[in-house]
Design brief:
Layout: H1 2-21, H2 28-65
Keywords: Membrane, Transmembrane, Transmembrane helix
Biased composition (Basic and acidic residues): 90-99
Region (Disordered): 72-99
């Protein structure tokens, strides 16, 4: 039974360390305090940062749309003349006419 004692002691020590690292409060009080801290962190840091990022994206989109000197493609691109769509390679034989 010696290995079981060592194993349970290690688990107890790890549990004690985690409990102390979380502030030493156990049970529902600990869960409630973490919920309050998480909610405050969300409303004080995360949410304002996301809103600022969204506003910056909207401003950038408006600036890009209102730029009179932006490049606009006016011609259709020329398709690749190769039948194989490869840079190198043997082209397909053209279909033979019945004439």
């Amino acid at each position: 039974m010696v290995p079981a004692k060592g194993w349970s002691r290690r688990v107890g020590s790890a549990r004690s360390f985690v409990g102390n690292a979380l502030g030493g409060v156990r049970g529902w009080t600990n869960v409630a305090s973490w919920a309050v801290a998480g909610t405050l962190a969300y409303y004080l840091w995360v949410r304002p940062a996301r809103q600022l990022q969204k506003e910056q994206q909207e401003r950038a989109a408006l600036a890009a749309a209102s730029d009179p000197y932006r490049y606009v493609e006016k011609r259709k691109p020329i398709p690749d003349p190769q039948d194989t769509s490869l840079t190198y390679g043997k082209k397909k034989d053209p279909p033979k006419s019945d004439n």
